[in-house]
TrEMBL record:
Residues 650-673 are annotated as: Disordered. This is Drug:proton antiporter. It comes from Thioclava pacifica DSM 10166. Residues 5-109 form the 2Fe-2S ferredoxin-type domain. GO terms for molecular function: iron-sulfur cluster binding. SUPFAM superfamilies: 2Fe-2S ferredoxin-like. Pfam families: RACo_C_ter, RACo_linker, Raco_middle. InterPro entries: 2Fe-2S_ferredoxin-like_sf, 2Fe-2S_ferredoxin-type, Beta-grasp_dom_sf, Corrinoid_activation_enz, Raco-like_middle, Raco-like_middle_sf, RACo_C, RACo_linker.
Length: 673
């Protein structure tokens, strides 16, 4: 009988010969098979579960006898008694290979497991987290040996895990000694390595059975949204959002830059405000997921350049003027506490690279998540927010720009506008014959005309609601192509009421009790400005690419996910395309942050991709203004929108009587934010 045996691991197909009696975990290490272990083979973490397979394997030319692996040893028997081994499952670190065998590594035992990111795109993401938990037993101190506790911890990592040259931060040293003693010299460390060498970023007493956690944060100008993610399989355990408190210094980005320019120390005030909010968000997420903030060992942040600089404590003044120079465009990896995140002592933060002075890490995150560079067809990806990030590209070339849409799409600057919250009108339909509306509010599944709708509190109209309202008004002939609301006589409904020198359309009148929800002429103008900026940005990229049409349009952003593609096209927010080629991608920037949190490979991919993206600067491009003015009409002054006309009525009405005080034109103050 030969002294070595053949072992084949599935699903990887890796195979090789090992000495008879080798344990499965050791064989996996030798053959480079991805088999998890936190305890280093001590039989306590149960991460190394494998399933030995027996019988005939003609594909592998192998017959496996039932005795090809050892029977349950004392450690496995104890585990089985206390926790119960699943039928067929074995602890890889305890099971010896005695003859030729096929060993299956189930997904839960793979560190680099594949996870489907989300059902919509079915994109498969590989887990490749920068931080993993590692259990070690550290030698106790001895009067005769002068090394410190950390040096003995580093020796344990080297001896027990072959991890050499580990570093740590002062913050970790501050908590190390009590934790070592509490764990009786047995600890689980959070070991971070994103290609820059191993670093201890957290330390927990004893064997840590729960996973480590990370935060994926999308820091927007208006809201800061975050997910708390388990770093073993990438699942989201909690999601929350807080307002960006910098709003009190200015609603849009440029007004915040101006605040920093006009007020000495203003940038520092804004830095402090956003860092405080990051801390609040971390605590809120940890509370919701019922984990301690010290269990959070990493954070990935995506944001636009102004938010980026203010978060890092860099004065954003250069971003307010051409040539819009960034302090740094590269990705950054630094202690998370520096940006206010309440986390483990040595937790790291990673910020994706920036594309350019106006196109930030949030756009890079969208590129990572939507990956237009992997597709043959031409995608236009629009991340709708206070500042829209726009990507246009395919596997040949990707272009990017940002466009200052302002906060109207988020319900701000709208007379009855409000954030998306229960009670807000989010959907609306207007009967083109009677001009009567019906609507749905957040938190109620019924149309307002259904008896089941009841008498809920109606509070306002949110961003997706105002888009639908204006588009429906256009389709019902209440608003003309120039954006003017007609009078009651012109339109034929008493719902069009005078409001100063213009008119407003009454969606809901709660009488003395309730709110009166209307769409005013000012609201239409605010939406026209926002949508023209969006369209003009997209059009500029299409000019640069030399195309008149795109193959698909993706609406991204937390808000983009709620926009009805048809209504967006009636407004002319996006270029004309067959409706079934327009889709929503949800919060693509947040998804990109999540991907970068779960995978070092994804970080390298986007760092590489960002260097290849061609940046188009809208602020200094004269054609932007031309496109902007033409895009002011609903849907557009010159573009014919043939696809849209197939599916939506666009009545040829005009309410410009020449004396309304409204010119229907597209004058605007140039603004970013
Ligand atoms: Fe921890 Fe096997 S490696 S139980």
């Amino acid at each position: 009988m030969s002294d070595d045996v053949q072992v084949i691991f599935t699903p990887s197909g890796k195979r090789g010969r090992v000495a008879r009696g080798t344990r499965v975990l050791a064989a996996a290490r030798k053959l480079g098979v991805d088999l998890d272990s936190v305890c280093g083979g001590r039989g306590v973490c149960s991460k190394c579960m494998v399933v030995p397979s027996f019988g005939d394997f003609p594909k592998h030319g192998l017959h496996v006898e039932p005795g090809a692996v050892s029977g349950l040893n004392a450690v496995e028997q104890r585990y089985d008694k206390i926790r119960g081994l699943k039928p067929g499952y074995r602890l890889g670190c305890q099971t010896e290979i005695l003859a030729d065998v096929v060993i299956d590594v189930p997904p839960e035992s793979q560190v680099h497991k594949q996870v489907v990111r989300k059902a919509a795109s079915e994109r498969v993401m590989e887990m490749d987290p920068a931080t993993r938990p590692v259990y070690i037993e550290v030698e106790e101190p001895d009067m005769h040996r002068p090394e410190g506790d950390f040096q003995r911890l580093a020796q344990a990592l080297e001896k027990q895990w072959q991890v050499k040259g580990v570093r740590t931060d002062l913050e970790v040293l501050r908590v190390l000694q009590p934790v070592l003693r509490k764990g009786d010299w047995k600890v689980t460390v959070a070991l971070h390595d994103a290609g820059d060498g191993p670093r201890v970023t957290g330390v927990f007493p004893g064997l840590r059975e729960a996973p480590l956690y990370g935060l994926a944060i999308d820091l927007g100008s208006t809201t800061i949204a975050g997910h708390l993610v388990a770093l073993d399989d990438g699942r989201v355990l909690a999601s929350a959002g807080v307002m960006n408190p910098q709003i009190r210094f200015g609603e849009d980005l440029m007004s915040r830059v101006s605040y920093a320019m006009m007020n000495p120390g203003g940038d520092q005030e804004m830095t402090k405000a956003v860092r405080d909010a990051m801390g609040d968000l971390a605590r809120e997420l940890a509370g919701e997921a019922k984990v301690g903030t010290e269990e959070i060992v990493e954070a990935v942040v995506v944001c636009n350049p102004v938010m980026h600089h203010l978060l890092l404590g860099i004065d954003p003044v250069e971003l307010g003027q051409a040539p819009f120079a960034l302090a740094t465009s590269e990705s950054l990896d630094f202690p998370a506490r520096e940006i206010g995140i309440d986390a483990s002592a040595g937790a790291r933060a990673y910020i994706l690279p920036l594309i350019a002075g106006h196109v930030g890490a949030d756009a890079a995150a969208v590129a990572l998540s939507e990956a237009p560079q992997r597709r043959k067809d031409l995608s236009l990806i629009v991340d709708v927010g206070t500042n829209a990030e726009i990507l246009l590209g395919n596997n040949q070339r990707v272009l990017a720009c940002s466009s200052p849409t302002g906060p109207a799409f988020e319900g701000a600057q709208i007379s009855s506008g409000q954030r998306a919250a229960p009670g807000a009108i989010e959907r609306i339909e207007i009967d083109p014959a009677t001009k009567e509306p019906r609507f749905k509010i957040i938190g109620n599944d019924h149309w307002s005309t259904d008896p089941e709708f009841g008498t809920p509190r109606i509070t306002g109209i949110c961003g997706s609601g105002i888009i639908e309202a204006v588009a429906e008004m256009r389709m019902a002939g209440i608003v003309d192509a120039s954006g003017l609301i007609g009078s009651a006589e012109q339109v034929g409904t008493p719902r069009c009421e005078p409001n100063g020198r213009t008119h407003e359309y009454v969606i809901f009148d709660g009488g003395l009790e309730g709110p009166r929800i209307t769409v005013t002429q000012g609201d239409i103008r605010a939406i026209q400005l926002a949508k023209s900026a969006l369209y003009a940005g997209a059009r500029l990229l299409m000019d640069e690419m030399g195309v008149d049409t795109v193959d698909r349009v993706v609406l991204a952003g937390a808000f983009g996910a709620h926009i009805s593609p048809k209504h967006a096209m009636v407004l002319g927010m996006i270029p004309d395309a067959p409706l079934n080629h327009v889709s929503s991608a949800g919060n693509a920037a947040g998804t990109g942050a999540h991907m970068a949190l779960c995978s070092v490979k994804a970080r390298r991919e986007i760092e590489d991709q960002v260097k290849k993206i061609t940046k188009v600067e809208t602020a200094i491009e004269p054609r932007f203004q031309e496109h902007f003015v033409a895009a002011n009409a609903l849907p557009h002054a010159t573009a014919p929108f043939p696809e849209l006309r197939k599916i939506a009525p666009l009545p040829d009405v005009s309410f410009n009587t020449g004396g309304s005080g409204e010119d229907g034109g597209g004058r605007r103050r140039r603004r970013r934010g």
